[in-house]
Design brief:
This protein is an all-beta fold and 68 residues long. It has no helices and five strands.
Length: 68
C-alpha cells in the first residue's frame, strides 16, 4: 500500500501523536520507510506509523474579520 505513495510529498502521523510533514517518501521496505525533508533524512519504522496523508488540494482558509 505504501509503495503507491513512493516519490510523493506526504504527512506522516505517528502512534505517539507527533507528525512530520513537507517531506517525500523515497524508499519503502517491509520494516522501514525513508522520508526526506529539506533539512533531514528520517528512517522510520513502519510499526511506529499511525497514518500517512497525501494532500491533494490546497485548502481555502476562512476569512477572519468583518466584511461588507
Amino acid at each position: 500500500m505504501l509503495a503507491a505513495l513512493q516519490g510523493q510529498e506526504v504527512t506522516v502521523n505517528f502512534l505517539d501523536g507527533s507528525t512530520v510533514r513537507g517531506g517525500v517518501l523515497e524508499e519503502i521496505d517491509e520494516r522501514f520507510v525513508k522520508y526526506r525533508t529539506e533539512y533531514q533524512v528520517l528512517y522510520i519504522p513502519i510499526s511506529s506509523i499511525r497514518a500517512v496523508a497525501v494532500e491533494t488540494k490546497e485548502r481555502e482558509r476562512p476569512r477572519v474579520g468583518f466584511g461588507q
